[in-house]
Amino acid sequence: MDRKTVLRTFEDACVAHFGEAGGPQIAHLARPGFEIEAAADDASATGRCALGGPALLEPGTPWPEADGHPLSLLAVLDVDAFAPWLGEHLPRRVGLLNFFIVQPAPGQPYPEVDFDDPAWLRVVPADPAQVVQVPAPTGTVSFEREPLRAEPVLTMPDEWSPLVHAIDLGLDPPSSAAQVAEFYDACPLVRNPAGDAAFGWPVGELGAIHRWKDGHVHLLKLMDGQSGWPTLYFMIPEDAFRSGDFGQALVTQETY
């Protein structure tokens, strides 16, 4: 089914479960996203999505640094390939996104992170028609390239989210949360990825997402794979996303 058909079908299911008043409000919370998985090869990958490998940057774009030390490339997302599923949730053409982070050398401790300081990460956009492959500078921790496949999914906020609780379902909060959770489990259209993911709702697996900020767009969730970091969530303020100012991107993690 295409995105519009999925959303219509989902709203019908919400109305059938929650009624004419609450159903459309629950349906309105749905966000299209992607479950990210390893692809067998580039032919089965989604566009140019990949973990690790060379960065895909426009000529003249400097490799990002923090305190004079080059950052490490975690992933590249081909957001142009996501556009048909994201629809109005993608307010402008983005192209490719390169995700970088501070990465300690093998055997060195991971740095103590200030989650409000964007200096230790970068999200660098690039026009696919202009990019060149840029290998990491000498001495930078780098990761083997793994092509990725992005499966479209429809995601929902946690049943305990204030956004869900703001909807009057005629029940007390625990009963309301239980009914929403029951619906999520029963509805085949709802799928909040347990592993790596892009866009959609950033649902934590083991606990609350540390300092998740309202009014932000979830860009990428990466589990503790090659990099050794705990589960990371890259996000950006909605207004910065609309204007293409990826210098305002932040990263946070789950609280265990």
Can you walk through the features of this model?
It is a single chain. With 256 residues, the chain is of the alpha+beta class. The protein has one domain (3-253): Hypothetical protein YwqG fold (Roll). The protein contains 5 helices and 14 strands. It has a 10-stranded antiparallel β-sheet. It has a two-stranded antiparallel ribbon with strand order 3-9. Strand 4 and strand 5 form a beta hairpin.
Quickly list its features.
5 helices, alpha+beta, Hypothetical protein YwqG fold, 256 residues, two-stranded antiparallel sheet, ten-stranded antiparallel beta sheet, single chain
- The count of strands amounts to 14
CATH architecture: Roll
Major sheet details: 10 strands, antiparallel
Question: Rg from C-alpha positions?
Answer: 19 Å
Q: Give the CATH level 1 class.
A: Mainly Beta
Number of domains: 1
Structural class: alpha+beta
What is the helix fraction of residues, given as a range? 10-25%
Protein name: DUF1963 domain-containing protein
Organism: Micromonospora polyrhachis
